[in-house]
Amino acid sequence: MSVLVFVEPADGVLRKPAFEAMSYGSRLAAAQNMQAYAVCLDESVPEDSLKQLGAYGAVKVLHDRSACFRPFDAQVFARAVRAAAEAVQARIIVLSLTYNGRALGPLLSAHMQAGLVTGAIDFPETNGEVFRIRKNVFGGKAIATVEVATAVKIIALMPNAVAPVRGEGVAEVETFTSGLQESDRRMRLTGVNKVSGKVALSDAEIVVSAGRGMKGPENWGMIEELAEVLGAATACSRPVADVHWRPHEEHVGQTGLAIRPNLYIAVGISGAIQHLAGVNGSKVIVVINKDPEAPFFKAADYGIVGDAFEVVPALTRALRRFKAGEMTFN
Amino acid sequence: MKILVCISKTPDTTSRIAFTDNNSRFDTDKVQFIINPYDEWYALVRAVELKEATGAEVTLIHVGPADGDAILRKALAIGGDRAVRVDADPADAYFVASQIAAFVRSDPHDLILTGKETIDYNGSQVGGMLAGLLDYPFVSLASRLDVAGNLVTLERDISGGKEILEVPLPVVVSCAKGMAEQRIPNMRGIMAARTKPLTVMTAHPADPLTRMVAFELPQTKQGVKLISPDQPEELVRLLHVEAKVI
User: Fold this and answer.
1) Euclidean distance between the first and the last CA atom of chain A, given in angstroms as a whole number
2) How far apart, in whole angstroms, are the C-alpha atoms of residue A285 and residue A274?
3) Which residues in chain A are contacts of B121 at CB distance < 8 A?
């Protein structure tokens, strides 16, 4: 019996979501005296990168290099992960709640009649047959404990919830043949629009977000500059996306994207509860708003009451000096 | 073309979030229930737009007790042609997906739309499970959807961008922001909805796979530390030295 971790690279490279899931899966495996395996369905990932998963606790990586896995078809992936899970007799399957993970989890759950927890934020609590795990609900306004009663359990881990732990070790990489073929894929990719050079919002460790207080789309330059100096992604509040000042992909909140970066900087956003719901999982929140009564200050760790048009450029300048090593702190 | 729109009932986004029965159940006292916004704004409105453009037929399905009829009537007022309510407690996503799958097996639909998740339990599960149970292709987080003949063109959110895909019908699609704009039902729609068929069906036997056993509220922040607007260096220092996030 084992724990199987589905690792998903981005553009052929394994990144933090994969390391988080692997690290989480191997800690789970250790607690239950099981082995941790990984499965990778991307032929473009070099064997050497897969071996590195050993440092996050993987004993072995099953690598299916079939070309049928591109583009992503959730049904094809679910069937391949199921085949891998059966090959290693997995009792727990771990995946990261990425865009693709969100599609894969429920299909796998239906195929295997295995209970799924979407967006787990913690390690499970186990006691004999009882298996309980916590996840955010109501867009982060509450946390639910979910009990999974099935023999096989699937955990879709919320990105940025559990830090990856890197140790020593090299995983064995084994060629795996799930039996899935090109003819199984029912989708055809006709185009990709990637916003290049920008940090993807869902994976970003730092997010700079702005709202109606910016007065108009022409004033976003200073937000982008602040984001750039921090290596951050940009986001916005719902009203701003609704009037098309910013693309809707940037909308964070209860009806937009829910994110949990390490640092969330909100500029000119009052902090309606629907907005807070999507961001209150952030580790540290900074609020910049000229209205001292803005409800967002109650949910913030640090705040500046002031005019964004002055504070944001000044903060960007200070951060540039900090990044250039021109600031020393005692 | 027959389109099925899966409708969930969720608390209004401004609802007070509290729990009862020793924190084991959501407290519905004074809570107003609405159509899950993703189901309404994106899945349902897009289905109605396709109906207007192509003459498709739009069926609505909801799994839940009788108080769900009110939201089904509203969905009919927005433009659904008929509604089905499976009269059962929606125990978990798998149970709900099993009910919808059973309905689709008896009454096939070509295009099945769900919202990307419900705003209460944030499961994002029913659409994918339904596709798994029916062995239909599944496209999640679609922000655009067009149908020409048997072929569906979709734009799907991926990390850092969008992917454009072509998929043949039948297909299950989870709908995200961008697909359509919210519509307010007009008086004619509301009147027409009163006489549109709403069928109540008994549940298909299925066992839930998971159960929510307890709820808690997140820890509140310690209180904000205010920094003077003319001292951005102090904020940089705190973020580096104290919060250790830069």
Assistant:
1) 52
2) 16
3) 137-138, 144
Among A96, A117, A301, pick the best mutation site for testing chain B contact (most B Cβ within 10 A): A301
B143, B57, B245, B10: which is closest to A285 by C-alpha?
B245
Class of residue A218 by CB neighbours under 10 A (exposed 0-12, middle 13-18, buried 19+): exposed
Is the CB of A187 less than 8 angstroms away from the CB of B13? Answer: no
* Integer Cα distance of A239 and B189 in angstroms: 27
Pairing of strands B198-202, A2-6: unpaired
**ipTM here:** 0.94
Q: Give the per-residue pLDDT at A295.
A: 95
Measured from the Cβ of residue A86, the count of other Cβ atoms closer than 10 Å reads 13
Total domains, chain B: 1
Burial class for A117, CB neighbours closer than 10 Å (0-12, 13-18, 19+): buried
Chains A and B form CB pairs within 8 A to the count of 283
A262, B141: Cβ pair inside 8 Å? no
- CA–CA gap between residue B205 and residue B101 (Å, rounded): 12
Of residues A254 and B3, more confidence is placed in: B3
Nearest of A197, A282, A269 to residue A238 by alpha carbon: A269
Contact A94, A21 (CB under 8 A): yes
By C-alpha distance, the chain B residue nearest A230 is B246
- Residues contacting residue A228 through CB under 8 Å, at least 6 positions apart: none
Could you tell me if residue B34 is inside a domain? yes
State which residues form the domain around B108: 2-217
To the nearest whole percent, how much of chain B has pLDDT over 70?
100
pLDDT number for residue A196: 63
Query: How would residue A330 be classed by pLDDT, with cut points 50, 70 and 90?
Result: low
Q: Structure pTM?
A: 0.90
In a domain, B245, yes or no: no
What's the CATH code of the domain at B21? 3.40.50.620
pLDDT tens digits for A270-320?
999 889 988 988 999 999 999 999 999 999 999 999 999 999 999 999 999
Who contacts A132 (Cβ-Cβ below 8 Å, separation ≥6)?
Answer: A124, A125, A126, A145, A146, A147, A148, B213
**Average per-residue pLDDT for chain B:** 96
pLDDT (tens digit, 9 = 90+) per residue, B210-245? Answer: 999 999 998 877 889 999 999 999 999 999 999 999
Residues 28-67 of A with CB under 8 A from B: none
Q: What residues of A are in contact with residue B160 (Cβ under 8 Å)?
A: 194-195, 198, 200
| Residue A306 near chain B (CB below 8 Å) | yes
Q: Is residue B147 part of a domain?
A: yes
Helix H or strand E segment including A160: none
- The reply to whether B228 falls in a domain is no
- Buried-state track A94-109, b at ≥16 Cβ within 10 A, e below 16: bbbbbbbbbbbbbbbb
- For residue A36, what is the enclosing H or E element? strand A35-40
